[in-house]
């Protein structure tokens, strides 16, 4: 039995009907806003390739966090631009580092925000890779201890969740062990489990000043052609103690989000990354796309693919658009 008995258009006739039968309801409650912390005071330096996004000193970060909280966005993820870089990313573990101080200040301001910290070395190493270099290669095992110490320093500063994004093998276990040894057994880990080697990170590398000075990240980040391998990465991170997992980027990897969602019963995050933001901003600035409709459609698609949590630079705009 089909037409004329069945007419799917009946339920699309009015906005009220469409609202009633909508399958995916995008809400601000699942959004996380990424922020870039830099040294100094009263600094707000716009990232040219990411209109609306800035590198900011701790005082400014706290001010924007107040706004983020007032918009009903549940949390932020912090990236650091340190005062100094070296071969091993030593500044990333300092209790006086930019991220550590930002976390402390957000805590002191008593904001109702989940504060997530990105755990990685690329912003802190002079060569820009996510691990230490041995014999011209990014060395896996030698990197794990530094990552664990960095996560511990974030925990001590008051982070609510640590999120390793380096893609070293075994880093979740190393971080879990270190946190547990120091009585942070209740601190969750959000693993960037399926993180692909992507051209869409381009603008982020301007924002975080983390462009690799030689080579690329293909020896540790995933090959965009692989899907089954993503399930393996997720399984390993969960075995090692990850509480939540993330797929990154989001748009070219909606199938991965769906497969991870179907295969595992943990919260799944998706990172709507810098390049995905910049293409929309650039097209909108040219009048080629309706920014609001485009962004809401993109985020609805990411949620429909199975993401419970979406990290997105559009979070503040979306919160305003969705406000009742
Ligand atoms: C690495 C890291 C990257 C992003 C988040 N964490 C960049 C990279 O791997 O080069 C990208 C985020 C984005 O593009 O918005 N620590």
What's the arrangement of secondary structure elements?
Layout: H1 15-21, E1 31-37, E2 44-46, E3 54-56, H2 58-70, E4 75-80, H3 98-108, E5 114-119, E6 132-134, E7 137-139, H4 141-157, E8 161-164, H5 171-181, E9 190-195, H6 202-207, H7 228-239, E10 244-248, H8 254-263, E11 268-272, H9 274-285, H10 291-305, E12 309-312, H11 315-322
Parallel strand pairs: 1-3, 1-4, 1-12, 4-5, 5-8, 9-10, 10-11, 11-12
Antiparallel strand pairs: 2-3, 6-7
Helix pairs in contact: 2-3, 3-4, 4-5, 8-10
The chain binds ligand PBG.
In short:
The protein is an alpha/beta fold and 324 residues long. It is built from 11 helices and 12 strands. It has helices spanning 15-21, 58-70, 98-108, 141-157, 171-181, 202-207, 228-239, 254-263, 274-285, 291-305, 315-322; strands spanning 31-37, 44-46, 54-56, 75-80, 114-119, 132-134, 137-139, 161-164, 190-195, 244-248, 268-272, 309-312.
What would your notes on this structure say?
By secondary structure, this protein is α/β, with parallel strands linked by helices. 38% of the residues lie in helices and 17% in strands. It has a single domain, classed as TIM Barrel, CATH 3.20.20.70. Strands 1, 2, 3, 4, 5, 8, 9, 10, 11 and 12 form a ten-stranded mixed β-sheet that branches. The protein has a two-stranded antiparallel sheet with strand order 6-7. It is globular and about 70 Å long. The termini are far apart. Bound molecules: ligand PBG. Residues 118, 120, 122, 130, 165, 201, 204-205, 210, 217, 273-274 line the site of ligand PBG. Ligand PBG binds next to helix 6.
